Each structure stands twice: as structure tokens, then as C-alpha cells.
Amino acid sequence: SKSQCAGAGGNDTFFPFFSDFKDAAVRLGLSIVETVVLASIFALALAANAGAIRLVLRRKGRLGAASCLVLNLFCADLLFISAIPVIAVVRWTESWTLGEAVCHLLFYLMSLSGSVTILSLAAVSLERVVSIVRLKPSKPWKGRLVAACLLAIWALAALATLPVYVGFVLCLQEVYICTLVWPSIAGEIAWDVSFATTIFLVPGLVIVISYSKILQSKHFSNIAKASRRRLQVGMAYSQKHHIRISQQDFKLFRTLFLLMISFFVMWSPIIITILLILVQKFQPDVNIASFVFFWIMTFTFSNSIINPVLYNIVQFKHGWRQIFFCCQNPLGKKDTTTDMSVNILTLLNFMKA
Fold first, then answer.
1. Mind telling me which residue stretches traverse the membrane in this protein (predicted)?
2. Which residue has the higher pLDDT, 316 or 322?
3. Which H helix or E strand runs over 236?
4. pLDDT at 334
5. What pLDDT score was predicted for residue 116?
6. CA distance 214 to 221
């Protein structure tokens, strides 16, 4: 039910989030610009993730655990961008006209998709440790085990973000806005701490520790040395089968490492902004404007384009072009092993720099 926003501490001023009350002179122009930007991100993200899913599913053989977790990332991205049409409507209406159910669902689904993304990145980092550090291909996971892992990720994310569904309500402040109202300050602090620990701190530590183990492992060094030797003598293929396997695993590791960096770079600003919004309840000097929140959120939405593009440029290259341009590789079928070695060497030199 609609309320007057009598929330924690009796404070009757709440952040409007996507409801923004623009000056009449610039309202039309700003709304058009915002809509064009949102529509472009939505269309590009939808095409990129759909194409990425198609390329992964077209792979020959049984999908491994890492591929399933990557598909989970793309599905989370599709869920994330589903909020864009709703946000575009709110930027035009300014006041909230979409009903309380949409108010509950909008921020819940956005929080859910972000939580699923970081949990999937943590899970796949553990899988990469097993594949690379052991220097042999990981055994295929049974279908039930993969399904259980994916279900656990979604269930944990859904439960952890459930307070967001309850907390966002439709409130009247001159006009109706969809805002976050906590019943008590203690409850707000308790959820903030538990959510940050469960969804961000623990998975973040898992990711850092996992990739640190890979970078510090002797097998990582062996792959690098093998790549340098192959570059120097111009060999097309490694003479040792286990080195070839390790290089394939390393290629996927490099891709997932880039996805992890992309996630933290593009999600950190919105996480910091949300924390500042909470802080401004207690520190009035901290003032976050609604349009600032909108553009930072828009920057975060663009991560849904970066993820599939990064993955497929590294993993599929020519297949990515064939999906969207319906053309074959003009150079014909080409050995990509040397190209992969060049990329590995470039990454290693960058890390040393």
C-alpha cells in the first residue's frame, strides 16, 4: 500500500532513485538523450548476450562446468537489462506511475542479477584453479552437479536480496516515488553488513585467492615458458599434449580474469554510490543527486555489453563475426595456436611491466 514514507529514524526525506524532477526548460531534451542512451545499451546488450549464448551452445561436445557458469553470467546480464525499459518510462514520467509491484521487482531483479554475476565469477574461479593448477583438464561435471551448483547460486542470491524486494515501496513525497524504506536503523545496518559480507566480501576473496594461486603456480610459469619457446622457433603445435591442454585452460582463465576485472571496475561506482545514499541519511552534507545515480547506473548497465564481447572476442574470434555478419573467415581455416601464444606473451609482459 502507498505510504507517506515514515521510515527509520522518523526521517521523511528519501532518495528518489530513478524519479528525477528536471527543469521544464531542459526536460524534453534530457529525456530524449536518456532514452536514446538506454535504448542503445539495451539493444547492444541483448544482441551481444544472445550471440554469446548461441556461440557457447554451438560448441561441439558436452558443455563443461566453466561453460555452464559463463552461460549463467550471460543469463544474469539479460535479467539485468530487463530493468532498462522500466527505467526509461520513469525518466519520462518523473513520478512513479507503474504500480507498487513493479517498484518491488525492479530493484530486486537488478540486485539479484548482480549477486548471481559475482557468485558465478567466484564459482568459475574455483573451477579454473582445479583445471590449471593440476595441469590437466578438469573432469566433466555430471549434469546434476552443474544444475545443483547453478541452483545454489540463484537460491543464495535470491534469499540475500529478498530484503530489497520488501524494502522498496511506493511513497508519497509531493509525488509518488519508489524508494527504499527500512523499518529500523538496526535492521538496515544488519542487512548491509550481512549482504556485503555474503555477496561481495567472501566471493571477492575467493576470486582474489583463486587467481593468485593460478598466477603463482609453477604450471603458469611452464605455460609461459612453452609459449616463449614456441614463438622463438615458430612451432605450430606443442610437442607435449599436456602443455596444449594447459594452454587451452589458460586461455579460458585469461578470459575470465578479464571478465572479473570488468565486473569490479563497472560495478564499484554504483556500489559506492548506494553506500553514499545510505550515509546521507546520517550526514546531510553528503548529497547525491538523482541524475548522478542514473548515469552511474547507466555505466553499470554497459557491463552487460562488455561481458559477452570480451568473452567471445577472446574465445571465438571468427565465430563471433560469422554470427553477426554471416561471413566466413576470409583467410580460411587457420591455426590459432601461435596467435594464442602471442596473446599469452603479451599478457605476461604487461603483468611484468
1. 69-93, 105-124, 145-169, 189-211, 256-279, 291-314
2. 316
3. none
4. 43
5. 95
6. 10
Question: What pLDDT score does 330 carry?
Answer: 41
Considering just the CA atoms, what is the radius of gyration of the chain in Å? 23
Q: Would you say residue 9 lies in a domain? A: no
List, as one string, the DSSP characters of 118-160. HHHHHHHHHHHHHHHHTTSPPPPPPHHHHHHHHHHHHHHHHHH
**19 found inside a domain:** no
126-161 core/surface letters (b: 16 or more CB in 10 A; e: else): ebbbebbbebeebeebeeeebeebbeebbebbeebb
For 289, which DSSP code?
A: -
CATH at 88: 1.20.1070.10
110: cell is: 537488478
Residue 246's pLDDT band, with cuts at 50, 70 and 90, is low
Calpha distance 127→123 (Å, rounded):
7
Number of domains in the chain: 1
Average pLDDT score over the chain: 77
User: Which of 165, 151, 155, 53 shows the shortest CA–CA distance to 104?
Assistant: 165
Q: 254 with 344: CB under 8 angstroms? A: yes
Please tell me the distance from the alpha carbon of residue 147 to that of residue 68, in angstroms, as a whole number: 9
DSSP E strands, the chain: 168-173, 175-180
Domain that holds residue 158: 24-228+240-326+344-352
Q: Cα(312)–Cα(336) distance, rounded to whole angstroms? A: 15
- Answer whether residue 97 is part of any domain: yes
